[in-house]
Amino acid sequence: MSNSLDGARYGMGNGVVNASRQVWLAGLGAAVVTREWAGKEAGHVFRTLVREGSAVESKAIRVVGERIESTLTQATHLIRRARHDVQSAVTGYAGSAIALVNRMKPAKPQAARTASRKQGTKVLAKSAAKRTVKRGTRRAVAR
Asked: Rounded to an integer, what distance in angstroms lies between the CA atom of residue 68 and that of residue 48?
């Protein structure tokens, strides 16, 4: 068993094998350079990045806070306006419904109207009789 890459064995040309090996070696080289950079210069650069990030974060929080505050103010205003509009509409509809119900009193059946008329006639007759009696009494007292 051989440790070397044999491109012909796997049906690949030497160009493909060489290119993949170069990519592998470039990755290893980048890891080594990064390790050396992290040991020597990264501390200073890292602290600078943290400082800049902190400044940007505080500015972003301030801007977002102002936006949230103005949005809450607008939302509160809209809720109050909607509540007022709904209350006005409900009050108006309720008034209209009451007026409509009052106009639409059910008609009495014919028998009930006749009975009501008869009772009214009896009441009128009694009232007339009482007036006559009172008049007669007054006339008698006046003589």
From this structure: 30
As for how many domains the chain has, the answer is 1
Structure tokens at 27: 């990755």
Dist CA 36 CA 29 (whole Å): 11
CA-to-CA distance for 129 and 69, rounded, in angstroms?
82
93-119 residue pLDDT tens:
888 888 888 887 766 566 555 655 656
Please say if the pLDDT value at position 137 is more than 60.
Answer: no
Q: Which residues contact 5 (CB under 8 A, 6 or more apart)?
A: 17, 21
Q: How far apart are CA 26 and CA 21, in angstroms?
A: 9
Structure tokens at 32: 């080594």
Domain that holds residue 139: 109-143
Do residues 28 and 35 touch, judged by C-beta distance below 8 A? no
In a domain, 119, yes or no: yes
Model confidence pTM above 0.70: no
Residue 143 domain flag: yes
Q: Which two structure tokens, joined as six digits, stand for 62?
A: 């301030």
Q: How far apart are CA 110 and CA 123, in angstroms?
A: 20
